[in-house]
Amino acid sequence: PLIGYAGELTTDRLHRMAYETQIPIVHRAIRTAGQQQGPQPKATFLEIIEEAAEADNGILLDKRDSASYLYLAPSWLTNRAPTIELDYTQPGHIRGEFQPVEDTQYVENDSTVTRSGGSSGRYEKTVGSLNVNDPETDEDGIGRVAKQTTLNLYRDDETQSLAAWRVHQGTWDEPRFPRLTVDARTILATVPGIAAIDVGDVIKVTNVPTRHSYNDLYLLVLGYTEKLTLFEWEITFNC
């Protein structure tokens, strides 16, 4: 406690905070793969656990089937097997707009990560797809898209590697499918798991038209909206 628990792993901090406050937190993670945290700040419970999740690059949310928080770590989210499989050609599996999007919402080719109370590290992508060069002089360049973030890290020497990872994620050169809508009422009998899909699950979509993709799609669910009336039950997943 004299050093603010500096150096403890992400899940250890979440577990300790839950024990001290008697506020339950469920975490899905490989403990030893978590980020070492910096000193615990003088802040509210929610601010502390949100800061820990941000440093670890995970997802913190409310658990929908119980009164507790849920933390999904990168070690749990990475390379997940599909929870369900949908067929583009089957009625009700894909409904409404389903289009790939090529945009710059998540692009980051120049990243600076600063440790709270410490130094910073920077990484930029100068070659390859979506690099920082002017598109007029480099066919792979899109211009500089620089972003900065401050994280509560344990050591200064972690900042540059985390900046490099953010650039790796921010220059992944593939279209994204931001929304997928299903007719849950129609497909519930053949795809019973559709109602249980939650944040962090992966949906596999097969038989996708070649105008969208030549391969099966693997979509990570980051949120959802349900529309329920007397005559319809639609679920739109944010992916």
Order of helices and strands: HEHEEHEEEEHEHEEEE
Radius of gyration, whole Å: 21 Å
How much β-strand is present in the residues? Answer: 15-25%
The class by helix and strand makeup works out as alpha/beta
Spans where pLDDT lies below 50 across 5 or more residues = none
Report on the biggest sheet: 3 strands, mixed
Q: What overall geometry do the principal axes of the alpha carbons give?
A: flat
Average pLDDT figure? 95
Please state how the strands of the largest beta sheet are arranged side by side.
Answer: 1-3-2
The number of strands is 12
Gap from first CA to last CA = 40 Å
**What is the share of helical residues?**
10-25%
Tally of DSSP helical segments? 5
Describe this structure in words.
- By secondary structure, this protein is of the alpha/beta class.
- The chain is flat and about 60 Å long.
- The strands form four sheets. Strands 1-3-2 form a three-stranded mixed sheet. The protein has a three-stranded mixed sheet with strand order 4-9-10, with no helix packed on it. Strands 6-5-7 form a three-stranded mixed sheet.
- The protein starts with 9 loop residues before the first helix and ends with a strand.
- It is built from five helices and twelve strands.
- A hairpin with a 6-residue loop joins strand 2 (59-62) and strand 3.
